[in-house]
Amino acid sequence: MVEKIKNNKFAIFCTLIFLIIFCEHFFMNYSIGDDGWFTEYGKMNLLDYLSFRYTSWTSRLVIESVLVTMLKLPRIVFMIINSCMFLLMYYSSIRITNTEKNDKALFLFFVLYITFPIKYFGSAGWYATMINYSWPLGLGLYCLYLICKSCIHEKLSTFQKIVFFPSYIYAVNQEQLCALIFGFTFVLIIYTYFKEKKINKFLILSCALALLMLAFHGLCPGNELRKISETKTFYPEFAKFTFIDKVVLGVASTFSIMLTKPLVIIFAFLFSIVICAYRKNDKIAKIISWILFMVYVALVAFILLNRLDISLPVLARVTTIIQMYTANVPEIILGPTLILYLLCSFLFVLAVLYCLYRTLDKEKFFFVGIIFLASLAARFILGLSASIFASSYRTFINTYFLQMICVLVMVFNHNPLLLKKNK
Questions:
Q1: Upper half-sphere CA count for residue 97 (Cβ side, 13 Å)
Q2: What is the C-alpha separation between 331 and 238, in angstroms, rounded?
């Protein structure tokens, strides 16, 4: 009996995730955000509603079809399906990292998972935010798990084949995740070609679908009108920004918010690099990894002290530029302070990659390195949107979940599913 329970710990943690998220629903305020608007406009004929949304606001037609349908159903339906999506995020991440048989990995990911603030998924209304962010992420991670299986020539079950394409279409209907999945599948095509000297047709099809959806997003007239509307409503100064200004805004705001709103995930990610350095017994990596960790802790402490009105000139100089990019900035001035901030951010990323290069084998380095860079790029790209701050912290959801995957690989040094050796 004890052995049976031990062998089912993965299922136990999945069940706990489902139950925790399901119980969270009873404490959610369903009267906030955009849910009321979607309820009212969802009374329209579905095709009329989608036509209206496509021409005036968004290309997320698949997602919004589900959203307005869910709002018409009993709330218990949403609660169950939404809890399943969170379970799917946990399940898929564990499968992708190939750690389902590692009890410590299951527990660590469970802790990171439940410490992630649930409020990130409710900033635009619980239905609207969950269905636009947690559902695409859950289904997207599951699709990436199946894609990884196909890359190592593991057979997909009939069920997996049936659910893949509807899940994939739903996931890539969210712009941020579509860009990520297109990037991942494109890199995997190159990786599998050089590894096996042949083209993986399943990967080609997946990449092509993501590319088509990217084109759909880009050509949608509603997306363009939304940009104009959001600029007027949320960030009027954004209209005069150049492309370089927007790139700077995306980068600076990403690091600023990660410093001013630190999560356990970031500390875990940086400490995982320390663990890698000690496991490899690399002196240079030990020094750099500790510097990265302690600098981050110090900056977070400086910002906290500044909020407590502990007036120290050095703290003010350090924190002013950081806090400036947590909200609308009237103009982007590439002066010495901002250039230094951007340079330090670049050096931070470079130092992380250098430590990973010194402490992980080549394939794991590329795996973790690409996911880490993708986690940052997923937020950097929001610099192109006037709603970069209005969209609140939900724009970091993909970033932090990707970094959690990195943590699992670094801490336990498992070969991810993609690097699993065929028997």
A1: 29
A2: 8
